[in-house]
Amino acid sequence: MGSMQNMLDIDQIVIDFLGFIFHENSPRNLSSEELLSIPTKAKKVLVTRDMSAKKLTALAQRNKIQWLQLHGNESIETCTAYKKLGFMLIKNIAIGKPSDFNKAIDFQEIVDFLLFDTVSIQGGGSGQKFDWNWLNYYQGKTKYFLSGGISPKDAKAICALKHPALVGIDLNSHFETNPGQKNTSDLIQFTDEIRHNQTA
After folding, report:
1. How far apart are CA 10 and CA 85, in angstroms?
2. Tell me, what's the pLDDT at 56?
């Protein structure tokens, strides 16, 4: 999230989660916790990559945030520890080839959702798609969010996927005017088109 007003504008759209990135190498990194204290209808999610468990736990608990989205090399043991503390988890699985979906198996019984994103050096935010035909290689029971290069033009293609475990989409760079600053008009048009295609 970028500015307070942008966050409040987005919160008026019917969305389920708002992500707040805390990773110093990201152009969307939040150096301040100010936005975390503002009430929202959507669930707030701390998005991080390999942050120390002590620091992440303190940040989340201090701001009364239950959801964590993990984009790094967090281990099964680390995820289990977060679950024992009562957190809800979204674990990123970087996809660069069909066999990468095998990495999701180890987290099946631990996380609440998986997130399939395009493999990148920075652990996400590449703005690039992986081949969505590869989603058929995922036969797990844990529900997932689709991420990676989704643009305002992709609504019909996403609705056509019909994968039984797909429950949400992660919208980022192609819906921004600047890093962290979302284009609310594009978001409204996209979400309206998704709903229209789902009911058609």
Report:
1. 30
2. 97
